[in-house]
Amino acid sequence: MTGPEPVVLPAVSVFGLHVCIGENVIVQNVSFAVPRGAIVGLLGPSGCGKTTLLRSVVGIQPCTAGHVQVLGFPAGSRVLRTRVGYVTQAPSVYPDLTVLENLRYFSAALGMRGWRREDAVVRVVKLVDLAEYADKPVAWLSGGQYSRVSLAVALLGSPELLVMDEPTVGLDPLVRRELWTVFRRLADDGTTLLVSSHVMDEADHCDRLLLMRSGRLLASAGRDEVLEYTGCETVENAFLDLVTASAALQAAGDRAPVARVPAPLLTDESADADRPYFSSGARC
């Protein structure tokens, strides 16, 4: 007789998260889960709180209230140091060093030495298709190649979770497509990706979406579920309809989120990371 299958916790569980900076409320009562091995897109306009939310997930942003758990540990735990990779909006590499010099420097900072360090460098150069540019100074590279160097640095520790803040911003459509091909390859190999963007058509590359506006989460669902729920043909139109519905509820004086499907209590190990959530109960 076989026992029950072990419970697989989400890669990220966020429940009731509030973040205030000074007197400004940046993130308001946000709850969601990120399933393992998926690409999850955090989509919303600039200034809506995406970066603050991602900083909370990687453990460098103090939380005013709520709970963030990453790979079964509190966000920012020392044990997560090499298990979580983080690509910031600002370049995280030295432009006057070559690609290889940057990678050797950052791998040493992770405590890698000798053959282990060289193996890690060779592995990530291959992963992000940078072999042709390995001996060139980063300052000589194009925007897309520059982004791939930052991505390579984040991959040095073979992270189980990769958090990326607007990694394709400012890049032309062809380069963006090439980067998303790399992201999909990583996910197919088992890495979980949490990627923020203000470009709504990037939803097509994601397994699941988190739609955010003014510090609040409007939806946590698959792309097709978002379109079915709103009756829209594009994620951009669906997002606008969800914003309108949310504003209508607030104008009516009902500021408590009403879920069409109840949001899971993500501190519960039985929580289903695939369960859809919408902040508005009314069909748009």
Automatic annotation (TrEMBL):
<dbReference type="GO" id="GO:0016887">
    <property type="term" value="F:ATP hydrolysis activity"/>
</dbReference>
<keyword id="KW-0067">ATP-binding</keyword>
<dbReference type="InterPro" id="IPR003439">
    <property type="entry name" value="ABC_transporter-like_ATP-bd"/>
</dbReference>
<dbReference type="GO" id="GO:0005524">
    <property type="term" value="F:ATP binding"/>
</dbReference>
<dbReference type="InterPro" id="IPR027417">
    <property type="entry name" value="P-loop_NTPase"/>
</dbReference>
<feature type="domain" description="ABC transporter">
    <location>
        <begin position="9"/>
        <end position="239"/>
    </location>
</feature>
<protein>
    <submittedName>
        <fullName>Multidrug ABC transporter ATP-binding protein</fullName>
    </submittedName>
</protein>
<dbReference type="InterPro" id="IPR003593">
    <property type="entry name" value="AAA+_ATPase"/>
</dbReference>
<keyword id="KW-0547">Nucleotide-binding</keyword>
<dbReference type="Pfam" id="PF00005">
    <property type="entry name" value="ABC_tran"/>
</dbReference>
